[in-house]
Design brief:
Layout lengths: L10 H25 L6 H12 L2 H11 L3 H26 L1 H20 L10 H18 L1 H4 L2 H28 L3 H8 L50 E6 L5 E4 H5 L4 E8 L10 E10 H6 L9 E6 L4 E5 H4 L6 E6 L2 E2 L9 E3 L13 E7 L7 H4 L11 E6 L3 E2 L2 E10 L5 E8 L4 E3 L1 E2 L9 E9 L2 E11 L22 E6 L1
Parallel strand pairs: 1-10, 12-19
Antiparallel strand pairs: 1-2, 3-4, 4-7, 5-6, 5-10, 7-8, 7-9, 11-13, 13-17, 14-15, 14-18, 16-17, 18-19
The structure holds the ligand Nc1nc2c(c(=O)[nH]1)N[C@H]1C(S)=C(S)[C@@H](COP(=O)(O)O)O[C@H]1N2 and molybdenum atom.
C-alpha cells in the first residue's frame, strides 16, 4: 500500500477548514440551545460571563459610549475573536493536530463551563458547547485524514457542505427563537388575563394631538429594554414561583395561578432608566396589571428592621428597593400584564416588579422569582456592586420630541414629555434662543406616577434657533440646568435642540 502523501491543502484552506468546522459546531449548538434552553447557547453563556466579570469602569464606559448597542457589539466582538481562533486552530492542525485539538477543546469547555454556571441553569446546559466541540473536532479530523486523498474539488465541496449546514443551523436557531416551540411564548399566547379588580383611573385627555409627539401610552413593541443578560430567560410558568423570604415571620411561595387569583390592580406608571441621557429614549409609560407588592409581603410578616427589599430574577439580576417606599401606600406592583396583554417575554414574563418613583435598576426586576427582606448594610445588589448609587429619587426630566431639526416659518408646535414619577409634573417651560421662559400647555394625567405631555405654539421666524425645555415637579422644584452624566445616579441638565426654520 502506498503511504499517504503529506496533506496537499494550502494554509489558507486549512484556516478555512478551522473556521467552517467551528462555525458548524457553534451553529448546531445554538440550534439545540434554542429548542431546549436558549441561555445555554455558547456565545450567549460566554457573553454573560464577560458581562458579569466586566470591571465597573468598563461597563459604565460601554453604556455611555454605545448605549443599548453595547450587547450586539459584545456579541460581534466575541464572534470575531472566535473566528480568528478557529482559523488559528485550523492552521495549527496542519503541523500539530494535538495542539489544535486542544485549542478547540478549551473553547468548548469554556462555553460548557460558562453555561453550566449561569444562575438558574444546570449541568445539562454544558451539552450544546460540548456538542459544538465534538462537531468541530470531527470536521477537522475528516479534513486531515480522508481530506488528504480527496481531490481539491472534493475538499471544497466538503467545506461548502459544512458551511451550508452551519448556516442552516444558525438560521434554524433564529427561527426557533422567534417562532419556535420555546414554551414561554406559547404559554403566554395561551393565557387570557383576568379583568382588573381595581381598574386604572381614567387618564382623561392624556394625549395632546401633535404629530411626532411620543404617545402617552408606549406600545409594548416600542418600550425600551434594559437587560444584563444577553439572552432573555424563557421562564416555564408552570414551574415558576415567587418566594418571600429573609427577615420575615413565615417564608411564603406563590405560583403564577396564586398571583392571578389575588386582587388585580391596574395602574398607569412610567418606568425610566437611570442611564437615560438628557433627551434620551430609555423611558416609557405603560398600563400595568398586577398584585399589590405591599399586601403580598405583609402576608409573610416582615421585620420592621428590614429596610431593603432585594428582588432576584431567574437570570441572577438583583435590585434593592427601600421598604419604606414599598409600604408607603404607593402602587408598588408585582406585575403580570402590560398594556392589556400578559407581560411580554422580554419585559419579564411571567412577573416583574414595578415601583412608581424608583429607577428600574433599583426596583423593576423582570422574571422575578424571589423577594428577600434584608438590610442595605447586608447586601449590595447588581448595579450597586458595579459602582452605581443606592436608590435615590428620580430626577425631574423633560424632553423635546418635535420638531427635530427643521421647520417652516409660521406656527410651529413644539411638544414633548416630562417626568418626575410620584412627585408628578406641575409645569413645563420653553425657552427660545435666549428669551424668557414661557409656560407650555400640559396634558391631563391620572397621577404623578406617569409622564406628562406638553406643547407650545411657537411663531417661528426663519433662521437658526435653539429650543430648551425645563420642567417643574409636583413639589415645585425646577429641573436643574447643572449638567451631570448618568453614572452614578442619573443624568441632569436641560434638553436643548438646534433648529433651522426655513
Ligand atoms: N432581570 C432583570 N430585570 C431588570 C433588568 C435586568 O437587566 N434584568 N434591568 C432593570 C433596569 S436597569 C431597567 S431600567 C428596567 C427596564 O425594564 P424594561 O426592559 O422592561 O424596559 O428593568 C430592570 N429590571
Ligand atoms: Mo435601568
Amino acid at each position: 500500500m502506498e503511504t499517504p502523501k503529506s496533506h496537499p491543502a494550502s494554509p489558507r484552506a486549512w484556516a478555512g477548514a478551522g473556521i467552517a468546522a467551528s462555525l458548524a459546531g457553534i451553529a448546531a449548538a445554538h440550534l439545540i440551545a434554542a429548542v431546549t434552553e436558549p441561555r445555554a447557547a455558547p456565545l450567549s453563556a460566554i457573553s454573560d460571563v464577560v458581562i458579569a466579570a466586566m470591571p465597573p469602569a468598563v461597563t459604565a464606559w460601554a453604556i455611555e459610549t454605545f448605549g443599548t448597542a453595547d450587547k450586539p457589539l459584545l456579541l460581534a466582538g466575541l464572534a470575531a475573536g472566535l473566528i480568528a481562533v478557529a482559523a488559528l486552530a485550523g492552521l495549527a492542525w496542519r503541523k500539530r493536530p494535538p495542539a489544535a485539538a486542544a485549542i478547540i477543546a478549551v473553547l468548548a469547555l469554556a462555553g460548557a463551563g460558562a453555561a453550566a454556571t449561569r444562575p438558574g441553569l444546570s449541568l445539562a446546559a454544558a451539552l450544546p458547547s460540548l456538542l459544538a466541540g465534538a462537531i468541530a473536532l470531527s470536521v477537522l479530523a475528516w479534513w486531515s485524514g480522508r481530506g488528504r486523498t480527496a481531490t481539491v474539488t472534493g475538499r471544497r465541496w466538503f467545506l461548502a457542505a459544512v458551511a451550508g449546514v452551519g448556516a442552516a443551523a444558525l438560521a434554524g436557531s433564529l427561527l426557533v427563537r422567534r417562532f419556535g416551540p420555546a414554551s414561554a411564548e406559547a404559554d403566554r399566547d395561551a393565557l387570557t388575563l383576568p379583568d382588573a379588580d381595581v381598574p386604572a383611573p381614567d387618564p382623561g385627555a392624556a394625549d395632546l394631538d401633535v404629530g411626532g409627539l411620543s404617545p402617552w401610552q408606549t406600545p409594548n413593541a416600542d418600550f425600551y429594554r434594559i437587560d444584563t443578560a444577553i439572552t432573555t430567560p424563557a421562564v416555564d410558568v408552570d414551574t415558576w414561583s415567587l418566594t418571600v423570604r429573609g427577615m420575615v415571620d413565615t417564608e411564603r411561595t406563590y405560583s403564577f395561578d396564586d398571583l392571578l387569583g389575588r386582587e388585580l390592580i391596574e395602574r398607569d406608571i412610567t418606568l425610566c432608566c437611570v442611564s437615560n441621557p438628557v433627551g434620551g429614549e430609555l423611558v416609557g409609560n405603560a398600563r400595568w396589571l398586577g398584585v399589590s407588592l405591599a399586601d403580598l409581603l405583609a402576608e409573610s410578616g416582615p421585620d420592621p428592621a428590614a429596610d431593603q427589599l432585594v428582588s432576584r430574577s431567574v437570570d441572577g439580576f438583583t435590585a434593592g428597593s427601600p421598604t419604606d417606599l414599598v409600604f408607603d401606600g404607593r402602587d408598588a406592583l408585582v406585575a403580570v400584564g402590560m398594556n392589556g396583554v400578559p407581560l411580554p417575554v422580554d419585559h419579564g414574563w411571567p412577573a416583574r416588579l414595578i415601583i412608581p418613583g424608583l429607577y428600574g435598576y433599583v426596583s423593576a426586576t423582570k422574571w422575578v422569582t424571589e423577594l428577600e427582606l434584608t438590610t442595605f448594610g447586608a447586601y449590595d445588589p447588581y448595579w450597586i456592586q458595579r459602582g452605581w448609587d443606592g436608590p435615590g429619587p428620580i430626577k425631574t426630566a423633560s424632553r423635546i420630541d418635535t420638531p427635530r431639526s427643521k421647520a417652516d416659518s409660521g406656527t410651529v408646535t413644539v411638544a414633548g414629555v416630562a417626568w418626575a414619577q410620584h412627585r408628578g409634573i406641575s409645569a413645563v417651560h420653553l425657552q427660545i434662543d435666549d428669551g424668557e421662559w414661557t409656560e407650555c400647555e400640559l396634558s391631563e394625567v391620572p397621577s404623578g406616577d406617569t409622564w406628562r405631555q406638553w406643547r407650545f405654539d411657537w411663531e417661528a421666524d426663519s433662521g437658526d434657533h435653539s429650543l430648551t425645555v425645563r420642567a417643574t415637579d409636583g413639589d415645585g422644584n425646577i429641573q436643574t440646568s447643572d449638567v451631570t452624566g448618568v453614572k452614578p445616579n442619573g443624568a441632569t441638565g436641560l434638553h436643548s435642540i438646534a433648529i433651522t426654520v426655513a
